[in-house]
Design brief:
Helix content is 33%, strand content 21%. It is α/β, with parallel strands linked by helices. The chain is globular, with a radius of gyration of 18 Å.
């Protein structure tokens, strides 16, 4: 399998291409990663169009949930979106925070940052900004955010533990996150695990559901809640690009599953501004 730097390069290259792709192409594949199904329908993404603040130009169809719908954002909040893409969740969050709030999107793909900034400029939003950076080392100060959201991004990151440590650092005491992501039950076939396209497609980088939830607990978060869960079924014509006939039959008939989950958790409000376990 690729090392951490190679994985990041693969994701950055693929998402630079996705920034210029049509939304319908992104939705008919896995997080826009290619291997399009012969049937055009949403494999992972949920419909944002009914949410207040939704901007069609910012929706690239790359998500696997609606974290901003569950994020309990209040007027005046500071919200950070991890892997902000073209700004979709940021603009929905801005509708919740109002003009007195602040929204910061972080993405490490320059083409996405450029697209998001263009969208914000067209909308005239002075309190929405986009920063280029790695969510394993966020370009923001500690204890800054009331709410953190993210949509189908942590599965793309090699060191998920480091991201949760960063989320803990950046949230204010008593702050919380709502994150949608892809997780697994059972084992993926080797052909999927080792495919670069499936890593960029939010599948090969996913980890076991219980391991994912345990990472959250181990990093000091409390009141963990599974807000939504849905099974993701990848069409056979996509799977056949990576699996032979026997592997395909075994995988589709087996007990392994790919799921989108939306998870909520809080940073304890104990006036402790340092790392988990310091108080």
């Amino acid at each position: 399998m690729h090392n951490s730097d190679q994985i990041k390069d693969i994701v950055k290259q693929k998402y630079s291409e996705i920034a210029l792709q049509d939304k319908a192409i992104n939705q008919s594949s896995c997080c826009g990663a290619g291997g399009c199904s012969t049937e055009v329908y949403n494999i992972m993404s949920d419909d944002y169009s009914t949410l207040e603040g939704y901007i069609p130009d910012a929706d690239l169809g790359l998500g696997c949930g609606l974290p901003t719908q569950f994020a309990r954002i209040k007027k005046g909040d500071t919200v950070i979106d991890l892997g902000s893409g073209a700004g979709n969740d940021c603009f929905v969050a801005r509708n919740e925070t109002g003009e007195d709030g602040r929204v910061i999107g972080i993405d490490f793909t320059p083409a996405m940052i450029e697209k998001a900034r263009e969208n914000a400029q067209k909308l005239g939003y002075a309190n929405v900004e986009f920063r280029k950076g790695d969510i394993e080392n966020m370009p923001v100060t500690a204890n800054m955010a009331d709410v953190i959201v993210s949509n189908c991004v942590l599965n793309l990151v090699p060191d998920k533990d480091k991201v949760f440590k960063e989320i803990f650092r950046v949230l204010k005491p008593g702050g919380h996150f709502s994150i949608s992501d892809i997780v697994l039950t059972g084992t993926l076939p080797v052909g999927l695990k080792e495919a670069a396209e499936m890593y960029a497609g939010c599948v090969a980088g996913a980890i076991q559901k219980e391991d994912y939830l345990n990472l959250i607990r181990q990093n000091g978060f409390v009141n963990l809640t599974l807000q939504k869960e849905k099974e993701i079924r990848i069409p056979e014509d996509i799977l056949s690009n990576y699996l032979d006939e026997h592997e395909l039959e075994s995988f589709t008939a087996g007990s392994s599953g790919i799921y989108s989950i939306t998870v909520y958790a809080e940073k304890p409000d104990n006036n402790c501004a340092c790392a988990p376990g310091c108080c």
